[in-house]
Amino acid sequence: MRKTRLCVVVAGLMGLSAHQLSLAEEGVESSAGQFAAEEIETFEVNHKFTMETASGPEDARLGADRDQSYSLRYEPTLIWYSPEKRWPKWRTLVRGWIAYDSGSAVSSLQDERREQAEGWNAELREFYVTRNLIGDDPRFSLSFGRQRYSDYLGLWWDDTFESVRFSYQDDTARGFVAAGQKFYNYNSDVNRLDPSEEDIALLMGEYGRSWRIGHWAGIRLMYEDDHSGADLDDPDDFTGFRYGVFAQGEYASGSRLNDYHLELAAVTGDRDEVAQAGSRTVDINGWAAIGEVGTQMIDWRWSPRFSFRAGITDKPDEDQDGFYLNSIQSDRQVTDDNFSTRLVSSFMGLQVSNLAYYGVGVEFSPTERSGVNMRLSDLYLRNPDADMPIRSVVPQDPDSRSLGQVFDVSYSWQRFPEAYKGRLLSVDTLLSAGYFFAGPATGDLDDEYQLTLGVVVRYR
Question: Could you tell me the keywords of this UniProt record (predicted)?
Answer without folding.
Answer: Signal
